[in-house]
């Protein structure tokens, strides 16, 4: 009797596991993409798109998964179908324009952007303007590219993935443009057991056997400003233990000679051994 009751309960409506809805499908696909399983994400999203055709988020995720696999053909097709269904969606049009730019087709990119309204504010507006600038530059219209880049204020919010595009376009449109924060780091490591072999990081230096390192850190901060004249702060750190820098930072140079005292007189170690003197002494 107990077994029959258990079977009856399992067969009741709602007793089985609930079917994954569109939100659940988006989360599942996002997790697969984060783990790098783009092929599994594509298969899952294609099935979900067939069951939930009215969910634009699934279409956008599917296009993203195709792009992560460098499949521009299916990414374009997915976005084009989505734009046909949601023609006023600025985000979908921006992604479609980006795909056309990667394909090297500025005319189709312009058509994708022209079909929608520019977002009013936020990082979405900045992305739209950057895509407009990229399209103009690809089409050979530097004036249009410069105008679109100038419309992106230096203090505007940007999506993290849009910052490299902004830096490239800004540098191309304005030769005076500089990053707000830039720097360089040089690091050299090595060791030597031969005191005459020179420093591992400075061939012109010789000394006792040791492990040595070279560290040079340079940073520059240029506060955002609309003026051509902007203050700049520079910091330089030399951490190799022996570097000498002139106080006025002017150009300077130095050289070193190592001299050995031999029975035949002084010998500059960077020059050949004085065999002639040795032969004269032995004669």
Molecular structure report:
The relative contact order is 0.05. It contains 11 helices and 5 strands; from the N terminus they run ααααααααααβββββα. The chain has 283 residues and is of the alpha+beta class. The chain is elongated, with a radius of gyration of 33 Å. A hairpin with a 2-residue loop joins strand 4 (259-262) and strand 5 (265-268). The chain folds into 2 domains: 20-173, Serine Threonine Protein Phosphatase 5, Tetratricopeptide repeat, CATH 1.25.40.10; 181-252, no CATH class. Helix 2 packs antiparallel against helix 3 (38-51).
Strand order in the largest sheet: 1-2-3
| Count of domain modules | 2
CATH superfamily of the largest domain: Tetratricopeptide repeat domain
> How does CATH name the architecture of the largest domain?
Alpha Horseshoe
- The number of helical segments is 11
**Strand segment tally:** 5
Question: How are the elements arranged and paired?
Answer:
Elements: H1 2-10, H2 22-34, H3 38-51, H4 56-68, H5 72-85, H6 90-102, H7 106-114, H8 122-138, H9 142-150, H10 163-173, E1 181-192, E2 210-221, E3 233-238, E4 259-262, E5 265-268, H11 275-282
Antiparallel strand pairs: 1-2, 2-3, 4-5
Keywords summarizing the entry:
disordered N terminus, 283 residues, three-stranded antiparallel β-sheet, 2 domains, two-stranded antiparallel sheet, disordered C terminus, 11 helices, elongated, single chain, Serine Threonine Protein Phosphatase 5, Tetratricopeptide repeat, alpha+beta
